C-alpha cells in the first residue's frame, strides 16, 4: 500500500527498542530504552540483567512508540522483530512480545536478522542503489557484505576472532575506561597522537577477512611492559595508536573491495560506525572516488535501534516473506 506502517521491536542485546517506519524509509517514531547504566558496574552486558530489563521495558517502549507516532494497532500493517543473532534470553523477550502482538491484533509477523537491520539503517538516510558494499562493524560483528539486490547478502569478509567493537571494549577495559568503551577510546584518540606502532592484521593477499585479537593483545602487552619498566604511556597515545590501526585496516579493505566489486554505494553499519575517526577516514578515502557514494547513518542509527529493523522488515514484507507463530529466537542466525 502507499502508506505502509511497520511496528518493529529490537531486544537482541542491551537496548529495548521499538519504532514505527513508514514506507520502509521514513521514521515515524523511534524509542530506545538503554540499559547501559545497569550493566556498567559489571564492565559488560550481563545476559540475565538484560532479559529482566527487556521484560520490564518492552510493553512501555511499544506504547510510548505508538503514542509518539499518534497511531493505534489498527493503523499498523505488520509487526517486525529481531530474531537473531544476539543474546538468546534477550531475543526471546522481543520475539515473544512481537508474536503476542501479531496474534492479538491479527497482523503479519516478520522476523529480521539483526545485521540486516544495521545495514538497512542506511535506507533511512538514502535510497539504496545496487550493487553495494556494506561495512558492518558492531560489538559482535565485523563483516564486509556485498549486495546485488534487496535482501541478498554475500559476506565477502569477516573477523576471524574479535569483532571491532569487542576489541574497542577490551582495550577500554585495559585502560580502566567504563563500558561500553568505544566512545571513550574514540574521545581519547582525538586528544592523542598515534605514536606507538601497533600491528595491522592484513592477513593473506586478497583476503577481506579481519583479525583484531592480535592488536588487542599488543595493546595489553604494551601497557604491561610499560608498567614493569616504570614508564608512563599516556592513555591518549595508546587510544590514538589503537584506533589508527583499526581504522587503517577497516578503511583499506573497504576501499579495495568497493573497487573490486564495482559498487555504486558503500554503506557503513553497526555501533563502531559511530566512531568519529572511522567516519572521517572513510569520508577522506572515498572523496576522490566520485562514482562511489558513501553513506554513513547518524550516530543514533548506528547503535542498536528498532528503526533499522523496521526498514529491513519492509523489504521482507514487500517480498512476501512472513514468519509464523513458530518464530523463535535464534542466537546464531545466519545472514
Ligand atoms: O551495534 P551495536 O550498538 O551493538 C551490537 O550489535 O553489537 O555496537 C556496540 C559496539 C560496542 O562495542 C561499542 O563500544 C561500539 O559499538 N561503539 C564504538 C563507538 N560507539 C559505540 N566503537 C568505537 N567508537 C565509537 N564512537
Ligand atoms: Zn547491533
Automatic annotation (TrEMBL):
Stored SUPFAM superfamilies: Actin-like ATPase domain
Cofactor comment text: Binds 1 Fe(2+) ion per subunit.
Protein name, UniProt field: tRNA N6-adenosine threonylcarbamoyltransferase
Domain of life of the organism encoding this protein: Bacteria
Sites where the protein binds Fe cation: 114, 118, 304
One GO molecular-function entry: tRNA N(6)-L-threonylcarbamoyladenine synthase activity
EC number assigned by the record: 2.3.1.234
Organism listed in the record: Priestia aryabhattai (Bacillus aryabhattai)
Amino acid at each position: 500500500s502507499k502508506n505502509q506502517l511497520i511496528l518493529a521491536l529490537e531486544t537482541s542485546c542491551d537496548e529495548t527498542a521499538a519504532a514505527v517506519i513508514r514506507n520502509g524509509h521514513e521514521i515515524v517514531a523511534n524509542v530506545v530504552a538503554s540499559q547501559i547504566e545497569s550493566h556498567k558496574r559489571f564492565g559488560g552486558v550481563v545476559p540475565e540483567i538484560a532479559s529482566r530489563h527487556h521484560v520490564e521495558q518492552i510493553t512501555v517502549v511499544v506504547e510510548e512508540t505508538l503514542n509518539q507516532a499518534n497511531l493505534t494497532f489498527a493503523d499498523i500493517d505488520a509487526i517486525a522483530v529481531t530474531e537473531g543473532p544476539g543474546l538468546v534470553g534477550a531475543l526471546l523477550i522481543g520475539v515473544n512480545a512481537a508474536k503476542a502482538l501479531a496474534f492479538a491484533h491479527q497482523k503479519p509477523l516478520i522476523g529480521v536478522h539483526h545485521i540486516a537491520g544495521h545495514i538497512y539503517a542506511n535506507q533511512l538516510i538514502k535510497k539504496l542503489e545496487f550493487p553495494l558494499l556494506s561495512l558492518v562493524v558492531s560489538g559482535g560483528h565485523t563483516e564486509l557484505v556485498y549486495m546485488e539486490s534487496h535482501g541478498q547478502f554475500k559476506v565477502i569478509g569477516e573477523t576471524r576472532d574479535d569483532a571491532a567493537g569487542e576489541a574497542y571494549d577490551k582495550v577500554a577495559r585495559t585502560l580502566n575506561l567504563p563500558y561500553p568503551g568505544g566512545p571513550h577510546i574514540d574521545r581519547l584518540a582525538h586528544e592523542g597522537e598515534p605514536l606507538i606502532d601497533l600491528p595491522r592484521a592484513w592477513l593473506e593477499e586478497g583476503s577481506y577477512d579481519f583479525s583484531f585479537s592480535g592488536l588487542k593483545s599488543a595493546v595489553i602487552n604494551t601497557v604491561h611492559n610499560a608498567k614493569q619498566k616504570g614508564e608512563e604511556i599516556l592513555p591518549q597515545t595508546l587510544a590514538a595508536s589503537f584506533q589508527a590501526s583499526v581504522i587503517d585496516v577497516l578503511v583499506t579493505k573497504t576501499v579495495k573491495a568497493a573497487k573490486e566489486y564495482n559498487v555504486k554505494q558503500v554503506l557503513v553499519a553497526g555501533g563502531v560506525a559511530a566512531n568519529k575517526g572511522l567516519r572521517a577516514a572513510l569520508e577522506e578515502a572515498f572523496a576522490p572516488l566520485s562514482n562511489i557514494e558513501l553513506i554513513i547513518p547518524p550516530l543514533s542509527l548506528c547503535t542498536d535501534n528498532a528503526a533499522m529493523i523496521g526498514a529491513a522488515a519492509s523489504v521482507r514484507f514487500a517480498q512476501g516473506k512472513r514468519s509464523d507463530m513458530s518464530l523463535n529466537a535464534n542466537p546464531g542466525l545466519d545472514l
